[in-house]
Amino acid sequence: MKNSRFEVEGRQFRTQTDYQRALRDKKLIDTLRKETASYNTEKLKQLVAKLKSPKSPFLTVLGQDYIEELEGRIRGYDKAVSTKQETLDSIVMEQLKKQDKRRRFMILFCSVLGIVCLSYFGIYMYRDYKVKSTNEQLNQLKEKPVIDSTFVSSDSTQESVQVNLDAPPEEKEVLDEYKNLLIKNKKLIGWLKIDDTNIDYPVMQTTDNEYYQNHNLNQEYDKNGSIFMDKDCDVKKPSTNYILYGHHMKSGRMFGTLDKYESEKYYKEHKYIQFDTIYEKGLYQVMYVFRSRVYNEDDVVFKYYRFIDANSEQEFDSYMQEMAGISFYDTGVTAVYGDQLLTLSTCDYQEKDGRFVVVAKRIEAKE
After folding, report:
1. 240: left (phi over 0), alpha (psi -120 to 50) or beta
2. DSSP 8-state class, residue 172
3. How many other C-beta atoms lie within 10 A of the C-beta of residue 249?
4. Rounded CA gap, 84 and 265, in Å?
5. Can you list the pairs that 70-76 forms with residues at least 24 positions away whose Cβ atoms lie under 8 Å?
6. What are phi and psi of 363, to 5 degrees?
7. Less Cβ around it within 10 Å: N or C end of the chain?
8. How far is Cα of residue 307 from the mean position of the Cα atoms in its chain?
9. How far apart are CA 230 and CA 327, in angstroms?
10. CATH number among 1.10.10.60, 2.40.260.10, 3.30.160.60, 3.40.50.300, domain 188-363
11. What residue ranges of the chain are covered by domains with CATH 2.40.260.10?
12. CA–CA gap between residue 58 and residue 73 (Å, rounded)
């Protein structure tokens, strides 16, 4: 039977002397355990090296057990550090992969965006060139001799119609410069031009105010549309007020620059508007410039787009007062009952269904 009186830290010692030495080693080990509780790996390694040296303070096998205990702690720390480092490396690699994916996505996105932008720019330039080219051809056609006085033209419904430009005496005579254009499209009603601007376009008129919002004189689909006269206006009668509509294109086409008239300085540089009907030439001087909107049918309010014919002097003067009251500035130009008016209208995006409007009156010559 073993003598448990000489047992220390699970070790058996044969003699009283070895037992006392073991107790001394245990006391030293307990002290070291407390001191090394907060040691890092480096300090533990230094302690192990010292305890393994010939000057080791241990007298029994308990010292070797404690050294192995310290070495186990060191291995545990190294493994933990290695695992932590591996985890950190894994996180770093994952982040790098994500960054690489984002970089590749951004490169792809930017490339696609660049192609789309380039394509859009190309289409935009082509359409802009086509509009310019078409307008140049139409202007040249105005100057050419009349092709034929009797022709067959196709309107917006593609219906063939016989038209005779040599009108009977009771009818107004078409101006020579518009006969060739009328051959291309019998819905031509006139031509609008403002010097030193891009506004230099044929004016169309049909039985509705929809078709020429997205068609040109050649009856081709065109998002620029055309300048067109309100369906209720009559150039033969004539109406008191010719109302012309056009898109406010970002490119500046059609009425895209009309809102420059908000500046009084711009107005002073562009006071006059040339508007010819197919029957007679006309020069107009700007009177009023204002913003308005399209109202509900039952709204009791001034609606500039309803002013086409004045049935009385009182009605005419009432409309003049309404427009003068909302005009951006006083041009000093006024009109009286019997004067011929011209209204240019385009979309304005400062409010829903907004409109930007320029109103002019017909004059005989520039001041």
Report:
1. alpha
2. P
3. 19
4. 74
5. 70/36, 70/44, 73/44, 74/41, 74/44, 74/45, 74/48
6. -130, 165
7. N
8. 35
9. 22
10. 2.40.260.10
11. 188-363
12. 19
Neighbours of 334 (CB within 10 A): 12
**Token pair recorded at residue 334:** 């006024």
Exposed, middle or buried by CB within 10 Å (0-12, 13-18, 19+), for 362? middle
In this prediction the pTM is 0.62
- Burial of 178: CB neighbours in 10 Å, binned 0-12, 13-18, 19+: buried
Q: Mention every residue, 6+ apart, whose C-beta is less than 8 A from residue 273.
A: 192, 193, 194, 283, 284, 285, 286, 342, 344, 358, 360
CB atoms within 10 A of CB 105: 10
Name the token pair of 164: 């005779």
Structural contact between residues 315 and 240, judged by C-beta atoms closer than 8 angstroms = no
Q: Tell me the pLDDT of the chain (367 aa) as tens digits.
A: 445 578 888 888 888 898 898 889 888 888 988 888 888 888 888 888 888 888 888 888 888 888 888 888 888 877 776 676 667 777 877 788 788 888 888 887 877 777 775 665 566 555 555 565 566 666 656 666 666 545 444 343 334 334 444 544 457 899 999 999 999 899 999 999 999 999 999 999 999 999 999 999 999 999 999 999 999 999 998 999 999 999 999 999 999 999 999 999 999 999 999 999 999 999 999 999 999 999 999 998 999 999 999 999 999 999 999 999 999 999 999 999 999 999 999 999 999 999 999 999 999 998 8
314 Cβ contact partners less than 8 Å away, ≥ 6 residues apart: none
Tell me which residue has tokens 């609606």. Answer: 303
Rounded CA-CA distance 7/13 in Å is: 6
Q: Do residues 323 and 355 make contact, with C-beta atoms less than 8 angstroms apart? A: no
C-alpha 112/C-alpha 80 separation (Å) is 47
Q: How far apart are CA 340 and CA 282, in angstroms?
A: 10
The per-residue pLDDT for 322 is 96
Q: Which two tokens stand for residue 236?
A: 């033969």
